[in-house]
Amino acid sequence: MPSAAGRGQGPERDRRPESGEQPAADDYAKERYGVSSMIQSQEKPDRVLVRIKDLTEEKADEVVWVRGRIHTSRAKGKQCFLVLRQQQFNIQALVAVGQHASKQMVKFAANINKESIVDVEGVVRKAHQKIGGCTQQDVELHVQKIYVISLAEPRLPLQLDDAVRPEVEGEEVKTLHPQICFNISTSTSQAVFCLQSGICQLFRETLIRKGFVEIQTPKIISAASEGGANVFTVSYFKSSAYLAQSPQLYKQMCICADFEKVFCVGPVFRAEDSNTHRHLTEFVGLDIEMAFNYHYHEVVDEIADTMVQIFKGLQERFQTEIQTVNKQFPCEPFKFLEPTLRLEYREGVAMLREAGVEMGDEDDLSTPNEKLLGRLVKEKYDTDFYILDKYPLAVRPFYTMPDPVNPKNSNSYDMFMRGEEILSGAQRIHDPQLLTERAQHHGIDLEKIKAYIDSFRFGAPPHAGGGIGLERVTMLYLGLHNVRQTSMFPRDPKRLTP
Amino acid sequence: MPSAAGRGQGPERDRRPESGEQPAADDYAKERYGVSSMIQSQEKPDRVLVRIKDLTEEKADEVVWVRGRIHTSRAKGKQCFLVLRQQQFNIQALVAVGQHASKQMVKFAANINKESIVDVEGVVRKAHQKIGGCTQQDVELHVQKIYVISLAEPRLPLQLDDAVRPEVEGEEVKTLHPQICFNISTSTSQAVFCLQSGICQLFRETLIRKGFVEIQTPKIISAASEGGANVFTVSYFKSSAYLAQSPQLYKQMCICADFEKVFCVGPVFRAEDSNTHRHLTEFVGLDIEMAFNYHYHEVVDEIADTMVQIFKGLQERFQTEIQTVNKQFPCEPFKFLEPTLRLEYREGVAMLREAGVEMGDEDDLSTPNEKLLGRLVKEKYDTDFYILDKYPLAVRPFYTMPDPVNPKNSNSYDMFMRGEEILSGAQRIHDPQLLTERAQHHGIDLEKIKAYIDSFRFGAPPHAGGGIGLERVTMLYLGLHNVRQTSMFPRDPKRLTP
Mostly located where (chains A, B) (predicted)? Predict the structure, then answer.
């Protein structure tokens, strides 16, 4: 057990809280509080630390040890009220002059800097009335011992309570604080990132159940595919290389090597100077590629079902997190259909025209039109998730398979959540001759994509796939407004730290 | 259904096999074979394709459709024997002149280039004797129709059968073929990478069950921690940045933000000019970080148990893959103890000295000594997996927590599989004052690691963690000899493609 006297077996140092007091010799409670020496794994005590979320009326009158942060503290005569926080949960703790605590001990407790981590021994007591502002409303902790485990500096860069006040309509999205630890410490952020972890888990769980194999694709590559725009350059020993803008080539090579169904989860790099609410220079791609038998809709159906399984899993397993986020960012629950709604591009264009938008058959969708179409689809079909199929060939990359019926269309699709694109995908051309023709049509230097085209020379199954942006899925599922809220350490043209 | 006449709805092109024949008008079987037009998702036929691995005696006398690659073909009078391959499985198929097949059809089948993908309709027949060289030994397929779906070029860069012949003792590890699709198409590679996918799955499954949260950490970073050696530089708009050598700082920030238990899976970049059997410039890191209560062994035990769960899961779920790899690379089954053997560094040094090695108490382990120690441990304790704990402080990074009893030691550990290091980890210093002292001792510029040290100023729980190299775990579990065999697209100082 860490010694309470501040002079453990670790290196000798001054561990006195700036405005706190170490116990004095004539204090009858002097063994019951203090600053522990740094935990350097000196001992293995058999003390059990109870989780704050488990402190309920069932534990009334038990003596427990708890580790938490000082969320708030308020001294009042011979008493000090602390709120102890542990992740999304908190409890009120009372230090009062009496048998266990001396006047000095109460003063010590009151002076511990906020955010410091403490070990507290206390008796769980039923509260006389509900304790507002705490997640554990029915009990409080009557403190018998309190030791500082890690002392926070007295001047915090921001107050956590300020960071989680509900969003006001029209107000600008709060900029991220440079001391990002605080940004990810709020109960909202804890919930956002637990849910994001859940999205990855559900994505992989579902695909592994469907017989997919996870692959690892390289991020440092020798040639920028698709012509080389928007790509970061890396110094590679005496030469140079690029950061992969997509794992697509590698997914396709695995398909050519008969892996049949593959997925990968990893960083994707885009050197676009875009400063919007939904662009990052580095984001996490959830990528799928799959050989099919006769029609790329076999793949579209698998991807759409994977998204549906994710939505269902989030509903079932992450209600607490969704509600925590909703407190700060109120939002309608995410709606989806089963099976997923699939519209053709021309149908989407028709709906937009009906709503007064002027656009040509082969024009791409602008961001405002995407959002408008999302609202129109929601009104008509009552879903926040749908597929737009058969994009004009002209607006898609050269490797997209042309539609066999109408050569102006293509076997390609986007998927949308709350009116914003989260996935782009297509049947890929698996025939080297057609691929060459299409690359030439796009004015791409064949020499630069020779390795790509050569991948298909030794028998390639027809295949399709797509890439999903993780941060966008998290943002749109939760109805947040900026992708920086769903990236722990966002990267954009102006932001490289921490 | 794709038309057999080679003139589907797709772009008009010559799809004739180089040495094959399209059906002639006077051929009674002319509808039963040919080169299909490119599958462009023209139709959604309700044809069911049966998996080759499911073709067993139970299916005898059924008519089935199968898609596979021409693995080998051998014409013999009025018959042609094909071996059709699908992933790790294959079956013999017979095209013989008769009611269904004409002389021309047999000739067509015999002339299809190897590795081409074909759709075959055939009757499953019991074989009169076991068919050697095929995984489906008890049945063969009597072909009634055969259509080429994707034609391979006639000159293959290597023969798959050559690539999987058993390793000969002392022979140099085969260099990877530049046409890597073939390198990852072999049954051995299929098995290696399926098992690797399983390692990732078991790693995450186990940690999520233990209450860990998956995090995503940035790969483009503004400052090279640990002083800046061996780091790749990236052009970042008008400035420059680095590729992360480890997610450690970010894992630790999550611990400071009370995530308590986190893990991540992602690429790690090391600009080391090392050309060894176990170094890559880009590899996949399985990283863990965890707050503990009083002793870092709480974390060591969790990590070791995670490895044990992986080993057990591989044994249970991947026997087929292990056996497939063993055919080419024979190897003793991987042995481990439960709980995992943990030796102190000084015990390891004593064992080495007893075996004649001369080394000082604070010397680091050389690679040959690591391997020797692995053999000694295996002899004495009969395990291929163990932990070496309490490394000398002098050989570990500045952020390693010193041992509280012997200041020349540290709270750090490595884990070994078959005598090679797969994980390096430690209790980290969570106190900014001690961290500053240790950085100064190592001569590190404090200005460059200010953000790192500042992360611990607002209360930091004691924590420990470690990073595992995925490719090494796969290599050592399977007893392979080069980490390039367990990376689909390996990167080293001399290799950036494909």
Answer: cytoplasm
Per-residue model confidence (pLDDT) at position B256 = 92
d(CA A349, CA A341): 16
Asked if pLDDT for residue B254 goes beyond 80, the answer is yes
- Cα of first residue to Cα of last residue in chain B, in angstroms, is 35
Please give the full DSSP string across B84-133, using - where no structure is assigned. Answer: EEETTEEEEEEEEBTTTB-HHHHHHHHTSPTT-EEEEEEEEEE-SS--TT
Q: CA nearest B497 in A: which residue? A: A222
Task: For residues B74 and A382, give the distance between their C-alpha atoms in angstroms, rounded to a whole number.
Answer: 59
Tell me if residue B308 falls in helix, strand or coil: helix
The whole-number pLDDT of residue A380 equals 98
Distance from CA of B237 to the nearest CA of A (A): 7
pLDDT, tens digit, for every residue of B175-233?
444 444 446 778 888 999 999 999 999 999 999 999 999 999 999 998 765 556 789 99
Helix, coil or strand: residue B291 = strand
pLDDT at A474 over 60: yes
DSSP at A236: E
- Angle between helix axes A367-381 and A345-354 (nearest 10 degrees) is 90
What would the DSSP string read from start to end of B215-266? ----SEESS-GGGSTT--EEEETTEEEEE-S-SHHHHHHHHHTT--EEEEEE
Give the C-alpha separation, A52 to A134, whole Å.
Answer: 11
Q: State how far the Cα of A116 lies from the Cα of A153, in Å rounded to an integer.
A: 8
The helix or strand, by DSSP H or E, that contains position A25, with its residue range, turns out to be: none
**HSE-CB for A192 with a 13 A CA cutoff:** 32
DSSP secondary structure letter of residue B34: E
Element (H, E) at B415: strand B412-417
Amino acid at A305: D
Let me know how long chain B is: 498
Q: Write the pLDDT tens digit of every residue in B69-110.
A: 999 999 988 999 999 999 889 999 999 999 999 999 999 999
Integer-rounded Cα Rg, in Å, for chain B is: 29
Beta-strand ranges (E) seen in A173-252 are: 213-214, 220-221, 233-236, 239-243
Is the pLDDT at B330 greater than 50? The verdict is: yes
Cα–Cα distances in angstroms (integers) from residue B247 to residues A125, A216, A423, B217, B489, in the given order: 43, 17, 27, 6, 22
At B447, which helix (H) or strand (E)?
Answer: none
pLDDT tens digits along B360-407: 999 999 999 999 999 999 999 999 999 999 999 999 999 999 999 999
Distance between B35 CA and the closest CA of chain A, angstroms: 13
Closest approach of B379 to chain A, Cα-based (Å): 31
Q: What is the mean pLDDT of chain A?
A: 90
Judge: B488–A250 Cβ closer than 8 Å, yes or no: yes
Residue A168: is its pLDDT beyond 60? no
Tell me whether residue B421 is one of the annotated catalytic residues.
yes
Q: Which residue from B320, B329, B280 is spatially nearest to B174, judged by alpha carbons?
A: B329
- The Cα A272–Cα A270 span in angstroms is 5
**Looking at B16, B125, B277, B279, which residue is catalytic?**
B279
Question: Two tokens at B455?
Answer: 């992360």
Q: How confident is the model at residue B316 (pLDDT cuts 50, 70, 90)?
A: very high
Interface list for B 154-183 with A (CB within 8 A):
156-157, 179-182
- Give the pLDDT band of residue A111 (cuts 50, 70, 90): very high
Q: What is this structure's pTM?
A: 0.91
Q: Among all residues of chain A, which has the CA nearest to that of B274?
A: A237
Q: Is the ipTM of this complex over 0.85?
A: yes
Q: What CA–CA distance (Å, rounded) separates A96 from B246?
A: 47
User: Which of the four pLDDT bands, split at 50, 70 and 90, describes residue A25?
Assistant: confident
DSSP letters for A256-271: HTT--EEEEEEEEE--
